Amino acid sequence: MTSLPIDAVLPELLDHLVHGSSAVLAAPPGAGKTTRVPLALMNAPWARGKILMLEPRRLAARAAAERMAATLDQRVGAEIGYRVRGDARPGRRVEVVTEGILTRMLQNDPDLPGIAAVLFDEIHERSIHSDLGLALALEAQAALRPDLRLVAMSATLDTARLSALLGGCPVVESAGRAHPVETRWLERPWKSGTQRRGAFAQAVSDLVSRALAEAEGDILAFLPGVGEISRVAALLQPHYPDIAIQQLYGAQSFAEQQAALRAQDRRRVVLSTALAETSLTVEGVRVVVDGGQSRKARVNPATGMSRLVTGPVSRAEADQRRGRAGRVAPGVCYRLWTRGEEGALPAFAEPEILTTDLAPLALELALWGVEDAASLAFLDPPPGPAMAEARRLLTGLGALDRAGRITPHGREMAAHPLHPRLAHMLTASADRASAALVAALLAEGDPIQGGNSADLGLRISAMAGRKPSPALNPAKAARIRQEAKRLHKGAASVTAGTSAVEAAGLALLHAYPDRVALRRVGEAPRYLLANGRGAVLRPGDPLSGQRLLVAAELEDSGREATIRLAAPLAETDLRHAFPGQIAWVETAEWSRRTRQVEARRREMFGEIALADQIWRDAPPGALGAALAEGIRERGLDALDWSKGALALRRRIGWLAASGMAGMAGLPDWSDTGLLTTLDDWLTPHLAGMRRIEDTARLDLAALLLATLDWPQREAIDAAAPAHFTTALGSRIAIDYGGEAPAIRVRVQEMFGVTEHPRAAGQPLTIELLSPAGRPVQTTRDLPGFWTGSYADVAKDMRARYPKHPWPEDPARQAPTRRAKPRAT
Fold this sequence. Notes:
8-stranded mixed β-sheet, 28 helices, disordered C terminus, elongated, alpha/beta
């Protein structure tokens, strides 16, 4: 047996597990931990049961089992076996399983009878399934199985943090990769050039060509998705007819994936997603070309919609990829970024539990009997808002009761290895065969890539052979058929394609009632979803003629989500399925478009209106309240303010700002204050009005004064009178809009005034006017004006207005009606 770096630390690991129940194993890529550790533990004195090892991917699980069985010169299914969804070859001593399998085992029997140890391989990938499995296993170990051994195996994770989670268990560190790997960076960033569509694929293709010319051995190139793999393959194939250009990704059949892992008698380039990042050995590879990008789904908790985000890999992921080049011999890693750009990469990928849809996790925790996720040992606890949204969804599906406890229906849902939406669809649908097919299709992924329509029925018809499609992925279609039969206990069949197509909309309705989509009037292919979100079909999609759809897959791509998969929905099916959630709603609302109140009666399902009528007998109060909203939106300037009303507001504002004694508690009649209290002083008077123009008949000053009591009015009039009355009896409005109260008055009306008039506790600013009403002087000291500059003003005025009196001593000019002015 060929020696591997991990062999040197296996005795230490075994010793720790003899004296303790947990350990962390840090082993870089190529150390051999995946195949050597289970075989070593299998013969430990405490191992009186199976060794269970978790792998994040089905291909990795089967490949690891095959390599270990080959090491023992056995077939898979003897001592060494595996279990993945839809395929199982149990082993007597070691079993490699995908992460969800462990969760099911723990939920069915928490003390894991017959299991001696659980190994969490590649735990640094931080999938939500491994985080949950570890949390449940730790609780089972503490409460039921103190003899259960747990080993967390990581290539890059912070082992100290992981050790603390496992009760401060020992950390065993293995040496590095078996062979050295030279890293070659770009000299300058490739992104500095063109950003046209396909530029990334061209850059990767160029880097692969460079690797083919400079280095020896097969090449493993990492790309974020199937689309990029196809584009790079198309660029390379014409130039390298003697090179085998192979593809490796999750949607392939197991046979296709196995073929990509095996070496050939000619040089090859394997274009892969992150599937080949860990656990797998791609034979003959001595060169890695890393495109530096990864694609992950992120869920917006506010909408429940996901979007695929392509971004830079973390340094840990890049190190994992680099290690693929040193598995069999010294290798070379080409990176599509510069050495300087490497420092900007994040250290680790964000844990899936922080970014993904938490509904499956919330259902598993409820089934486990946990109400608060914080009570379990998670490396990163699930975010509170996302968990709250997940529980709301589960409650709506009937999986949880109002107290958050799992219901019998929730237990039935949890028995299916599906997202809770799909599990609910399967258990609630009358046509279980069709629902199983739809659930399998959504769980396994779209079998048609790059299609022109989002119609789910086209996929079902293509798989049934009724409407063949050249874009149909045969391997994925076969997996969907197999999964559908398994979900329906072997009875589901896509040969009855017609019924499945017709039932697709109703089946989806059970899973996605919040994604029922109503076409916007005159705006196809734009839709409004029952959850209030906007959505759009691709232009030219045949589904755009449908009034009602149910959207199964949405990409949260901006202001409106993009519908990726959907099925038509009959309104009768919607009414029959949710009679209690459809109700008439009467609304009076301000319309920005028409700038008036619109009163409607709508038959609502969520946020969509199945019927819409004019509400002809809308109560006047409802109309007024809606008009008030329009005024709030447009602002107080939309109202017809009289000069008197504006003067009143300025007077109150002056007093409120002056801090005069006795003026505390004055209302705030600024724009902000009046908008805040609109329902107190204006809304009751808007009853029956529909347009802002209708408010012109209201006396706004009177409405404001009506909010003051009589003592307040008297105090205001005394402190800040609205008018100044001259000796001749003229009432001059006092303006409180400036730095000081002010009036505008003709000079002749102020003759005989020897004491400067005051208001609001300070001298009035007096703008003296000529007989023609033109300003001649502004003063806050009238007696001083009479003895000062008046002489010059009078000299000029006598020439202009000879018929008007301009006495030499205006202060001694006898008044004609009153000897002394008074303020009111």
